[in-house]
Amino acid sequence: VCVCWCLCVCVCVCCVWLCSPSDYNQSMALNVNNKHNIYYDEVALDGVMKSLWLLTLTMIFKGFITVFTFGLKVPAGLFIPSMAVGACIGRIIGIGMQQLAWKYKDEAFFLYFCPTSVGCIEPGLYAMVGAAACLGGVTRMTVSLVVIMFELTGGLTYIVPLMVAIMTSKWVGDSLSKGGIYDGHILLNGYPFLDSKEEFEHITLACDVMRPRRNDAPLTTINLSGTTVGDIRAKLTSTEFKGFPVVLDSETQLLEGYINRHELSMAIDRALHVQGIANESAVYFSAKPPRRQDAGYPDQIGLHHVLDKSPFQISEETPMETVLEMFRKIGLRQALVVRNGRLLGIITKKDVLKHVDQMSRVDVDARLVH
After folding, report:
1. CA count, 13 A, side-chain hemisphere, 120
2. Which of 51, 64, 190, 292 is deepest in the core (most CB within 10 A)?
3. In which element (H, E) is residue 149 found?
4. Parallel, antiparallel, or unpaired: how do β-strands 227-228 and 222-223 relate?
């Protein structure tokens, strides 16, 4: 990565060193009728051609290096490299338009929009618009990017061309791919992210998504009574679930709460360091410890402080469209599916994402068939 950045810096330094003020042959002539009427004849010399080649090399190197640095997850940034690539492209186009305006200055188009008495074509303006357009196409930002460019330049005059360039880049980017580079990175890394802009129009219920399903192992739960420290440690060792529902007993499956894996593991580890706590120690979830019938048994451990007694619950007939909105707006990680207080299953955020992806694939297959 360091070698790539050094190469890019060398190319940029060469651009600055070789692009001298003599790149343009500017001949000024003063009109005797109007002392303010000054025009410039700008002829491209060898220095301009060198600068164009160096700008092209910088654009290629910068884009190539940005792909690697962004994929390596190092703090190399994305805003500035994208703006640098866009600025190079805009500067090249601006120099080209400037030469066209000089070469065909007697044409009706340039006489009307760009009279020779006014230096109307500024390659720097093209570079600024190109930087905004490139960053807008990469990140798909619109209004916020216009504000950022306005704060960077301080020029209110250029708001309209910036808005047009940013919106055009967004439309072109949306026609080529779905979402910006950050959305693509989320999908590539498999992060559990639910996009609020996507709509779910399928008629499915919570019972179609919840686990356990048919032919699956029963849901791992913790009984409210009769559980020991050894039982909990065995479940923590044999499973990788992020939490466990707490039920009254294994037969009725009446839901009493939900306990997070991390909090449960920390509470058990702290309790094992206390004298008298062993694997045979009973676990209780009430505020007051139950009465001990035999004084020979080891001490009990209370876990009521880590028990969530009001977990989020939904019915098995709840539409998945409603469940999806709940996960988006409330920020749920899991929802317990119950019927008259009896635990039926659990829906996690990853289950919702898998279901949405599965339904989208079904839509694509249906379009291909028809």
Report:
1. 14
2. 51
3. helix 143-153
4. unpaired
β-pairing verdict for 282-284 and 227-228:
antiparallel
Q: Is 346 left (phi over 0), alpha (psi -120 to 50) or beta?
A: beta
Three-state DSSP class for residue 191: coil
CA distances in angstroms from 79 to 135, 136, 137, listed in the order given: 7, 10, 11
Residue count of the chain: 370
* φ, ψ (nearest 5 deg) of residue 222: -120, 130
Model confidence pLDDT, tens digit, residues 297-324: 667 888 888 899 889 999 999 988 888 8
Query: For the residues 268-290, what does the mean pLDDT come to?
Result: 79
- The three-state secondary structure class of 187 is helix
- pLDDT recorded at residue 12: 43
Bond preceding residue 212 cis, omega within 30 of 0: yes
Q: Is the pTM of this model over 0.85?
A: no
Going by C-alpha positions, the residue among 195, 191, 251, 186 that lies closest to residue 221 is 251
Strands 222-223, 255-260: pairing is unpaired
- 307-308 β-sheet, strand order: 222-223, 243-247, 255-260, 307-308
The strand pair at 301-302 and 282-284 is best described as parallel
202: left (phi over 0), alpha (psi -120 to 50) or beta: beta
- Over residues 139-154, the mean pLDDT reads 86
> Do 283 and 228 contact (CB within 8 A), yes or no?
yes
Q: How many CB atoms lie within 10 A of CB 48?
A: 18
SS3 354: helix
For 352, the token pair is 């919702």
Give 218-234 pLDDT, tens digit per residue.
Answer: 888 999 888 888 888 89
